[in-house]
Amino acid sequence: MQNVEYKAELRDLPLAKTICGVISASWVSTLAQTDTYYRVPDARLKRRECVGYEPEWIFYSRSARIQPKLSNFTIYSDAQAQQRFGTTPLPVLCVIKKKRELYMSRGGVRIHLDEVDGIGAFIEFEALVCPERNLAECHRQIDELKAAFKGALGEPIACGYADLLTIDASGAPLRGE
């Protein structure tokens, strides 16, 4: 599967919630998520645990850039992940805990308002590439959301939360993980 993603600092959470209402984005849920990231070659792997849901494993790759980016991903259940990645425990990179407020735009783009422990607040847009929404349409919808949320957005983020947690101020990876 593929989606187009965009992430930025969130400077004003109350304003972002207000904008969701103004653009008629539907509130879906508030989620408490714990993502355990594992060290794997040539991609990323995380196990997501969320209160009220079965755990899922997300195996994905995407470029590190501040513009909206294409992500290729596969979602596995615990049993499928064990078959795919084996039974030997994988080396853990880090654990991310967050509170996610999930909204859905009228165009079907997921809007995440995330409060991430130890890192801060962020906004993320995810547009699933599908027959109803091709790659160009995904980019168009994300551009519209970026414009709508402009007043609440901080700096764009090129990487994921695990990267933000595991790099130091100079941009070098932290050692001893």
Q: TL;DR of this structure?
A:
The protein is an alpha+beta fold and 177 residues long. The chain is 21% helix and 44% strand.
The largest sheet, given as strand count, sense and whether it forms a barrel, is: 8 strands, antiparallel, barrel
- Determine the number of helices (DSSP H or I, runs of at least 4 residues): 4
Shape: globular
Fraction of residues in β-strands: 35-45%
Residue share in helices?
A: 10-25%
Distance between the termini: 30 Å
Structural class computed from helices and strand pairing:
alpha+beta
Rg, rounded, reads 16 Å
Task: Give the averaged pLDDT, no decimals.
Answer: 93
Per DSSP E runs of 2 or more residues, the count of β-strands stands at 9
> Are there runs of 5+ residues with pLDDT below 50, and where?
173-177
Main-sheet strand order equals: 1-5-4-3-2-6-7-8
- Helices and strands, in N-to-C order? EHEEEEHEEEHEH
Can you walk through the features of this model?
The protein is of the alpha+beta class. Helices cover 21% and strands 44% of the residues. It is built from 4 helices and 9 strands, in the order E-H-E-E-E-E-H-E-E-E-H-E-H. An 8-stranded antiparallel beta barrel has the order 1-5-4-3-2-6-7-8. A hairpin with a 5-residue loop joins strand 3 and strand 4. The C terminus is likely disordered.
